[in-house]
């Protein structure tokens, strides 16, 4: 019996030990899937992020390729219709008297030179069949420029032909005559006795100079700064005429169909006889503003200088804010006449009523005085009568 018990106890002990050894193995089997699950989630997240980044990179690369393909197409189209070569030419000038140019598409710069006078210009080429050149001649002080197009008229990417004329540092020239199809003109520090300029499209800037003559710009503005004008006609079809800090002489005519005329003259308004016409817009003369002067405005200051200002659509401003009052002015607008007549009628009515009121007051005063005098006389008569009665009664007694 004892041996059996011992065997049974030993078997129980062995079973317990086996169970103890099996439990850690079971726990290990349960933990591994959890670890794998957590690791799989992380890898999935990183994988998704990586896929998104890869997709973005691929998209950017493809978009860049498409853009480059499009750019190649556009540049090829531009190259087919543009000059691809340019050359700068230079001609020395000596004792220049006048300038005459007839250009297609080109900018023009005219200014003083610190060294010897010369001209510098650009020529454009595309092979041997297409070119934009200038015929330049300088004889007996006369500079002539004329554009010469071979083949078809092309343009140049990011570039425009330009003509630079550098004049002597002192003295003026007798004449500038020119026409441009498209381009800007800028002239600095120059005295020109006769000026004749025509532009189809572009802007004109004249700075610190003396000019007389004619300037016409079909599409673009005319800007003058710190200059002096005499016997000058400025005309634009579509564009503004701006004059700043300039001295205006006699016989000036500024006209535009659609645009503003803004004048800041050194001399005061009373130095000019102003004749202005405007269909739609404001007319400002000093500190006075009018609207739509369809029938015109005329001021005769008996001055030496005459100036005509005309625009169909736009504003005309002459020395805005100047406090000078213009005498002997005639305002020709129909509406203004009605207003003036109404104002005069009101003033007349006011004067009449004031006069009538004064007369009435005088009459009232006179009537009051008369009534007071009558009352005083009556009272005095009554007093006299009472005194007489009293005296008679005393005598009878």
Automatic annotation (TrEMBL):
InterPro entries: Toastrack_DUF4097
The DUF4097 domain, residue ranges: 173-316
Region (Disordered) location: 1-26, 339-397
Record-annotated membrane-spanning stretches: 43-61
Stated name of the protein: DUF4097 domain-containing protein
Species: Anaerococcus lactolyticus S7-1-13
Pfam families: DUF4097 (PF13349)
Biased composition (Basic and acidic residues): 339-357
Compositionally biased tracts (Acidic residues): 375-397
Keywords in alphabetical order: Membrane, Transmembrane, Transmembrane helix
Domain of life: Bacteria
């Amino acid at each position: 019996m004892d041996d059996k018990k011992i065997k049974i106890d030993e078997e129980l002990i062995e079973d317990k030990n086996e169970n103890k050894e099996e439990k850690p193995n079971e726990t290990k089997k349960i933990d591994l899937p959890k670890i794998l699950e957590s690791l799989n989630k992380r890898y999935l997240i990183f994988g998704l992020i990586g896929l998104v980044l890869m997709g973005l990179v691929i998209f950017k690369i493809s978009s860049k390729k498409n853009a480059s393909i499009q750019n190649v197409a556009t540049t090829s189209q531009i190259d087919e219709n543009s000059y691809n070569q340019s050359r700068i030419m230079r001609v020395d000038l000596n004792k220049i008297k006048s300038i005459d140019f007839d250009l297609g598409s080109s900018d023009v710069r005219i200014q003083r030179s610190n060294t010897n006078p010369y001209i510098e210009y650009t020529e454009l080429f595309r092979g041997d069949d297409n070119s934009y050149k200038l015929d330049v001649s300088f004889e007996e002080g006369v500079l002539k420029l004329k554009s010469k197009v071979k083949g078809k008229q092309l343009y140049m990417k990011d570039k425009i032909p330009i003509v630079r004329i550098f004049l002597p540092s002192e003295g003026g020239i007798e004449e500038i005559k020119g026409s441009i199809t498209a381009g800007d003109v800028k002239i600095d520090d120059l005295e020109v006795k006769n000026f004749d300029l025509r532009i189809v499209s572009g802007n004109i800037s004249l700075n610190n100079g003396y000019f007389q003559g004619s300037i016409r710009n079909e599409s673009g503005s005319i800007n003058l700064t710190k200059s002096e004008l005499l016997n000058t006609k400025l005309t634009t079809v579509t564009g503004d005429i701006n004059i700043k800090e300039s001295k205006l002489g006699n016989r000036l005519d500024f006209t535009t169909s659609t645009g503003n005329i803004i004048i800041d003259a050194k001399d005061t308004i009373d130095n000019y006889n102003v004749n202005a016409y405007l269909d739609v817009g404001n007319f400002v003369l000093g500190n006075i503003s009018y609207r739509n002067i369809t029938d015109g405005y005329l001021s005769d200051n008996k001055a030496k200088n005459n100036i005509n200002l005309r625009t169909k659509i736009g504003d005309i401003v002459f020395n805005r804010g100047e406090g000078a009052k213009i005498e002997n002015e005639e305002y020709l607008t129909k509406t203004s006449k009605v207003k003036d007549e109404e104002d005069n009628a009101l003033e007349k009515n006011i004067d009449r009523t004031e006069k009538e009121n004064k007369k009435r007051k005088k009459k009232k005063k006179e009537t009051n005085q008369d009534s007071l005098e009558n009352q005083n006389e009556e009272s005095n008569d009554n007093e006299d009568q009472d005194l007489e009665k009293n005296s008679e009664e005393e005598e009878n007694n």
